[in-house]
Amino acid sequence: MTKSELQIARASYSPKIPLVLKGEVKAVEEVKVTQSVADQKEIEAEFPNTYGMPVIRFEKDDEKKQYPAINVGVILSGGQAPGGHNVIAGIFDGLKATNKDSRLYGFILGPGGLVDHKYKELTGDIIDEYRNTGGFDMIGSGRTKLETHEQFDKGLEILKKLNISALIIIGGDDSNTNACILAEYYKAVGAGVQVIGCPKTIDGDLKNEQIETSFGFDTACKVYSELIGNIQRDCNSARKYWHFIKLMGRSASHIALECALQTHPNICIISEEVKEKKMSLDKIVNQIATTVAKRADKGNNFGTVLIPEGLIEFIPAMNRLIAELNEFLDVNKNEFEMIKKSEKRAYIIQKLTKGNNADLYASLPEEVARQLVLERDPHGNVQVSLIETEKLLAEMVGNRLSEWEKKGKYKGKFATQTHFFGYEGRCAAPSNYDANYCYSLGYTAISLINAGKTGYMSSVRNTTAPADEWIAGGIPITMMMNMELRITKKNKKKDTKPHENKKNKKNKKKPVIQKALVKLENAPFQFFADNRKHWTLNTDYVYPGPIQYFGPTEVCDKPTKTLQLEQGK
After folding, report:
1. How much is the CA Rg of the chain, to the nearest whole Å?
2. 3-state secondary structure (DSSP) of residue 513
3. Residue 355's pLDDT is what?
4. What is the predicted pLDDT for the residue at 491?
5. Could you say which DSSP state residue 540 is in?
6. Interatomic CA distance for residues 509 and 42, integer angstroms
7. Helix spans in 407-511 (H)
8. How far, in Å, CA of 20 to CA of 469, rounded?
9. Under 8 Å CB-to-CB from 237, ≥6 apart: which residues?
10. What pLDDT does residue 386 have?
11. Residues 106 and 88: beta-carbon distance below 8 Å
């Protein structure tokens, strides 16, 4: 492949790892008996062979060990996140350091590659091409869910054929849920295959006391913050636009909060706060419009608004509307598709519950109303990323200001620009933090395999300290699990009556990793809450600039503001 000058320079970067991993290690039980975060009896029943295992920490071992050569498989699963290639590089180097004759196989395009027996051996030449690079293009990724015994058995066929005794799944909460289920199944049937997970997602919602952060979050937030800073510099220069910026994060607002901490926007909406305070869409619009009016009074007809991708589902009234739309469209999909495009809006309004839901849907801008009834995802839910919340709020705020202007309550100019930052951050070249963290996660995964563990997630902690002081270990994935409702469409009969269909869906509870939401009582949000009034009325923008790869450690290796505040740094 053709490389840029930065890629050439980055190829020579040697990631920093915990001092403990530089030599022989032994597994020490940090917490001897564990339990799931919730629904303990149900989770234990689902995972009788892998539940309750200890939390592991690695320490130096003076005893020299001889490990046999083994074959290991690796899968990249779900959406891309910066640093995935470094996880694989850490796996490869850790594997070869254990025994130079060990081999690594990558399954192509995610879990589907395991089921369909599509793979390639990852040699040193291949690994070296991708060190410290962004993306998942070394072997590709995919979103195939590993859920059925048929899939597990099909995967086991190729694992046995390649003599693979351990499989590492690099992914987010859904992917690591699959890793946990696969580990349980292979242990139950005596397959002789260990399964280890690595925590990946730029959304930042896969974390707990042992998993400080998911990889890619640091890099993605720095990329978005650079872009936001650039917009704010332009905003402060032209002084004529309000910029409404939507950021990735359907289930949690970690990205929006981190970017706010880095850039000091005039407004940042946190979905978890909206839900906690039961805020209506009208109240959110009023709050933004009030800020616009107050800044206009000071002669500042410009500003920035950060919006988390999943905001719509956190607004109680919108959530009820979406729930009814999901159920109605699931049952009446064929009839709805036959309605003329120009008549669809009126048709939906007529079918919705009179009053709240019908009135709310009727109040939405035409384009957003259309987006709410687009094709559902595989679970039967609205695809939130397709809803242009940034345009919805910009338009509704504009309408509110026009109403106030007619009543003499507002004098100012309101022009908008809208943005959605998502894919821009998923495949960026990893920051030094993510390059180091990911490489350490991969190296730690091999240590877990050498220790005979299965059903564990690789854990690297204390990452606000210098890398030498990082703590490497493993956490049983079952510790992160709870039972949640999941819609299973494959069992739904076409002639099912609406009330029966609803009943069937309510009975589908599955074990899944619990998502980590923004905690309003924790230090990152509290710091934001303490400062947002000042940021709202004043132009106190911060311009972070591009990610720095070369230079002083305090500039190049610093972790996120979120992590620093969480650890009191």
Report:
1. 25
2. strand
3. 83
4. 41
5. -
6. 10
7. 423-426, 432-450, 498-506
8. 8
9. none
10. 83
11. yes
Tokens describing residue 41: 């009896």
Rounded Cα distance between 95 and 88, Å, is 10
**Are 459 and 473 contacting, i.e. CB atoms less than 8 angstroms apart?**
yes
494 has a pLDDT exceeding 50: no
Q: Are 199 and 516 in contact (CB under 8 A)?
A: no
Q: Look-up: residue for tokens 């305070």?
A: 277
Q: Using CB atoms within 10 Å of the CB of residue 167, give its burial: 0 to 12 exposed, 13 to 18 middle, 19+ buried.
A: buried
What are residue 475's DSSP bridge partners? 457
**Mean pLDDT score, 97-124:** 98
Would you say 418 and 70 are in contact if contact means Cβ atoms under 8 Å apart? Answer: no
- Over the range 110-119, which residues count as b (16 or more CB within 10 Å of their CB) and which as e? bbbbbbeebb
CA distance 11 to 85: 12
Neighbours of 401 (CB within 10 A): 22
Beta-strand relationship, 25-31 and 55-60? antiparallel
Q: The tokens of 393 are what?
A: 């709020």
Question: With 70 as the cut, is the pLDDT of residue 178 above it?
Answer: yes
Query: Which residue from 179, 154, 155 is spatially nearest to 47, judged by alpha carbons?
Result: 179
Catalytic positions are: 203
Token representation of residue 490: 């494959």
With b for 16 or more beta-carbon neighbours within 10 A and e for fewer, the 405-418 pattern comes to eeeeebebebebbb
| Per-residue tokens: 357 | 């839901």
Residues 119, 161 contacting (CB under 8 angstroms) = no
Query: ∠ CA(366), CA(368), CA(369), 5° rounding?
Result: 65
Phi, psi dihedral angles at 127 (to 5 degrees)? -55, -45
Cα separation, 401 vs 403, in Å, equals 5
d(CA 47, CA 225): 41
Which DSSP string corresponds to 391-418? HHHHHHHHHHHHHHHHTTS--S---EEE
Backbone angles phi, psi at 376, to 5 degrees: -75, 165
Note the pTM of the prediction, 2 decimals. Answer: 0.94
210 neighbors 55 (Cβ within 8 angstroms): yes
Residues in the chain: 569
State the chain's mean pLDDT as an integer: 93
Joined together, the tokens standing for residue 363 give 């109040």
